Amino acid sequence: MTNSDFRYATNPVDARRYGTSELREHFLIDDLFVSGQINLTYSMYDRYIVGGAMPANEKVQLETISHLKSDYFLERRELGVINVGDKGLVIVDGMEYELEKKEALYVGRGSKEVSFAKVGEGQPLFYLNSAPAHKECPTRKVGKKDAEVVHLGDDLNSNKRIINKLIVNSVVETCQLQMGLTELLPGNVWNTMPAHTHSRRMEAYFYFDLKEGQTISHFMGEPQNTRHIFMHNNQAILSPEWSIHSGVGTSNYSFIWGMAGENLDYSDMDTCEPHELR
């Protein structure tokens, strides 16, 4: 079963007036993983889709949704999959790809049948991002050894982290989708600080591996009109092109970033120094 909901884009002037419930309604994505289902959120930020697939005893198939007006899901789209659970299978047009935790699969435009399945008794959790695509690129698995790894931050500033670039143009050919995974080391809690915006593309964050009972405060909004949303494990949030996207947790955690828009330049950022934030 494939379920979906829809989010309109919000302009920054309107967002200044949002309270807690309105911020969560417009930007937070909850209930990504429901047993035996695929849950998707279609957003008007670059027509980006964020979702989760949780196969039960039977495999679950990615079906087209009404917002796409297409015969099959990837008729005019590309897909990124990152497993954040136990080992699982992604089946693309009959070809099986086995994904361990924190491994990725890029699925190119034109792939007609995509489904997700368990391997043994473990429970895989497949985090999904999808963007419109104007060309076909080959489907390819990106394992841990294939990632482009960058070490950033330090213990002094509580932001020592490992960035794993998975579905990026320096690793695998894509149309516009870019995805990666950042791991905060023990004792470190800040991500993406100094904060930045990039007006040429939107972004989505997915937080996971957060210890039970802990929380993350995700900061968003214009650099001089910031807001925050408290988030829990296995929740995602949409980040408009005009918004910063940064967070701090009550313990360390991991998160997946996904982007789409005008270019594929990972370093395309308009940085805002900490003392400039309001």
UniProtKB/TrEMBL annotation:
Pfam family, one: KduI
Any one biological process term the GO annotation gives: D-galacturonate catabolic process
EC number in record: 5.3.1.17
CDD domains: cupin_KduI_C (cd20491), cupin_KduI_N (cd20294)
Recorded metabolic or biological pathway in which this protein acts: Glycan metabolism; pectin degradation; 2-dehydro-3-deoxy-D-gluconate from pectin: step 4/5
Reactions catalysed according to its record: 5-dehydro-4-deoxy-D-glucuronate = 3-deoxy-D-glycero-2,5-hexodiulosonate
Keyword Isomerase in annotation: yes
Cofactor names: Zn(2+)
Keywords from the named record: Isomerase, Metal-binding, Zinc
MF term (GO), any: zinc ion binding
Binding site residues for Zn(2+): H196, H198, E203, H245
Record's cofactor remark: Binds 1 zinc ion per subunit.
Enzyme class (EC, first level): isomerase
General function of this protein: Catalyzes the isomerization of 5-dehydro-4-deoxy-D-glucuronate to 3-deoxy-D-glycero-2,5-hexodiulosonate.
Family note: Belongs to the KduI family.
Protein name, UniProt field: 4-deoxy-L-threo-5-hexosulose-uronate ketol-isomerase
